[in-house]
Amino acid sequence: MDFLFIKQVIPLFCQAAFLTLQIVAAGVILSFAAGLFCAFVRYYKIPVLRKIVHFYVELSRNTPLLIQLFFLYFALPNLGIKLSALECCVIGRKISFMPTTKRLFAMCTEKKATRIQSSLKAAFCKTRRF
User: Fold this and answer.
1) Is the pLDDT assigned to residue 3 strictly greater than 80?
2) Which of 5, 61, 112, 116 has the maximal Cβ count within 10 Å?
3) Residue 34's closest CA among 104, 94, 87, 93?
4) What confidence tens digit (pLDDT) does each residue in 86-99 have?
5) What distance in Å separates the CA atoms of residue 14 and residue 16, rounded to the nearest whole number?
């Protein structure tokens, strides 16, 4: 084994790991904010925004992350929107994480609503209606 080469490359791996953590952190924070917004739109049933959010969620769920990243990096410059590789990664992670965040919020509110209804001694069929 060439330990001199490994010694030279380890700082690059540390920089790459730090950059990866930055991308993931930014993606999670942005996706949490977007997911929370989308969950509120769907929960409060805002007519026009609800359809837009539904389309956005279905599009982001049904396309692989790699295709989304290719679109951001290669297709958007043809439309006049130029993004750096880092910006594409952060936006791609946000698009990828957002439906999961929205689903988690919906599950939390559903559990909370079920607990409230059961504490009020509501009938089982009424608690499962929505």
Assistant:
1) yes
2) 61
3) 94
4) 888 888 877 776 66
5) 5
pLDDT of residue 74 exceeding 80, the answer is yes
Whether the full predicted model's pTM is greater than 0.85, yes or no, is no
Query: Do the Cβ atoms of 122 and 106 come closer than 8 Å?
Result: no
Rounded CA gap, 39 and 52, in Å? Answer: 12
Question: Would you say 38 and 98 are in contact if contact means Cβ atoms under 8 Å apart?
Answer: yes
> Which amino acid makes up residue 93?
R
43-71 pLDDT tens trace: 888 889 989 988 888 887 788 888 888 88
Residue 123 phi/psi, 5° resolution?
Answer: -65, 150
Helices (H), the chain: 3-44, 47-62, 65-70, 85-119, 124-127
Tokens representing 108 are: 């939390």
Nearest to 37, CA basis, from 22, 61, 62, 56: 56
Collapsing DSSP to helix, strand or coil, 129 comes out as: coil
Q: How many helices (H) and strands (E) does the chain have?
A: 5, 0
